[in-house]
Amino acid sequence: MNRNHEIIDFAVSMPEVWSILSAKEQDLILDCYVVEYFKKNQTIYCENDIPINMMCLLSGKVKIHKEGVGGRNQIIRILKPIEYFGYRAFFAHEKYLTGASALEASEVCLVPLKIIFELVSSNSELAQYFIKLLSIDLGIADERTVNLTQKHSRGRLAESLVFLIDSYGLEEDKSINIYMAREDLANLSNMTSSNAIRTLGHFADERIVSLDGRKIKVINEDMIRKISKLG
């Protein structure tokens, strides 16, 4: 790829980080990054792997998940372009506590974490940027912990639908712009698959949503948000 094209691609795909870097630091990134393509359901990294790369999702959707009791997966969060992931464990001097998999065909940029560490050590603005990202993620995790433990099943499922609406938007026919297996939706909502399917069926009976395979069409968004808020 032409060097000028690389610079343009990075400036477009990683605008916040790119603007923080000096020309020399930008060259350092350009000399070591790779872009990998992951098929739907393909593993990006596993729990207990040693973190090697910081990753930026360029296109597609990625789920961050953790294996729980009895081998049941809990989806921690779902990423959309352009979001960074896979670096927290490195800064904590830990192995990965979670795994990451592609929810759909995805394009991911990988930059060696040893390079990121060099840049963070010498660029205070970049260090502050990652501190901000980690702090935001911690706040979201704290809020989700409370919601997933205190809300009833209807509230948890509604909260997941609100999250998907806010993150990915609606198509012209009001379908949520992400198609998830019911098991993934259940794992996002801290529910069993059967409970998630049953609750989603109740929402359909109440004309809050309509279902077409994996497509979920939003009929009454205000009610979804109300159920989520009430818990």
Which key phrases capture this entry?
elongated; 4-stranded antiparallel sheet; alpha+beta; about 230 residues; about 50% helix; about 20% strand; 10 strands
Outline the structure in words.
This protein has 231 residues and is an alpha+beta fold. The chain is 48% helix and 22% strand. It has 10 helices and 10 strands. It has helices at residues 3-13, 15-20, 23-30, 88-91, 113-122, 124-150, 153-168, 182-188, 193-205, 221-230; strands at residues 34-38, 43-45, 53-59, 62-67, 73-79, 83-85, 99-102, 106-112, 209-212, 215-218. Strands 1-8-3-6 form a 4-stranded antiparallel sheet. A 4-stranded antiparallel sheet has the order 2-7-4-5. Strands 9-10 form a two-stranded antiparallel ribbon. α7 (153-168) crosses α10 and α8 (182-188) packs across α9 (193-205). The chain is elongated and about 60 Å long.
